[in-house]
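Re: your question from the hallway

Yes, I did run it. Sequences:
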Amino acid sequence: MGMWKEFSKGLWAELPPFRLVLGLCPTLAVTKTANNGLGMGAAVIFVLVLSNLFIASVRKIIPKKVRIVCFIVIAASLVVSVELLMQAFSYPLYQQLGIFVPLIVVNCVILGRAEAFAGKNPILLSAADGLGMGIGFTMSLTFLGAIREIFGSGMLFDKPFMWEGYEPFTFMIEAPGAFVCLGLILAAMNFQTAWQAKRKGTDPVVIRCSECAACEVGAKDE
Amino acid sequence: MDFFLMIIAAIFVNNILLIQYLGNCPFLGCSKETSTAIGMGGAVIFVTVMATTFTWLIQKFVLTPYGLEYLQTIIFIVVIAALVQFVELFLKKAMPPLYKALGIFLPLITTNCAVLGIAILCQRKEYGFIESLVYSFAAGFGFSFALVLMAGIRERLALVRMPKSLAGTSSGLVMAGLMALSFLAFKGMIS
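Structure:
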């Protein structure tokens, strides 16, 4: 039961890019097409599950003061293996994602989960948490990618999607489209949360980015 | 002349934040007040130039000669983390006023993807040493420039009444989109 709870919270209640607002750079940068979003998500799932697994298994050995550095080194080794695997098996995707493959290291989702969850919880629970968060991240990226691809080029997964003679709205696949699109999705999520809370008569859940150790911005605000 | 073009290109045409989407976490987190934004921007310029210098030297004299290029990511991030710690200690001892101004931002910078991103970009574009230095300074300056502009806008935005679900990060992102749109206008300037 506990496993399922940890797994499923990443899918909706704590959806990484939209609710926790973690890992924005890849979310914005690689979602020109749904396909790229999916590929990036797969790489993140791999790194996140394994890093949670490793960190949870060594969590009692790592001294508290140097834990962030240890987390980064573990994540970096996994990212290097993802890079090599992608170069071997899906080179076109590797070239599409470009610099954002090595930058998975500094993706706050990885460090955030390591600090907030894997550093304190047993191995299997941490793996479930990583898998749930990773799948949530992939879903969000694919969703954003699909929206931008449909409106920006009239395609979905490289296949024509809109009607004949549709004029592509190039704004969506350029940089500004990414920011505006993500901003509006966040607003929609906030609106949905507030609406649901009002209906149930409970206080809305406050989203805190201070959970992420790497980014002390939120902690400072409070 | 080449360097001049490169600086203009890195600041306006390929702005690291708005066009290449690197370093968005501090962009949204540290852009509530202009003074914070200036501090963060200064720290980023400083660390970016230092990090690019060190990683370039390491790539040239250690990784490439011994065929260890595949370790680039892991070495670079460790170097940046160590460098940030070292800079923090050094500033604390040697230049307390500067430490006071930049100190609280330094730990955040380790995980700022702009720093690692610029170091890796310099390698991928195969820049020479001086080129890397100039590029990293210009890109860091572009980052700070966008950050300070954004902070100015958000200071005004805080006074405006707007729908609750749009407040905070989501309006910040929409603003960033509009800024990116204006930076996109420079696109045709340098090919």
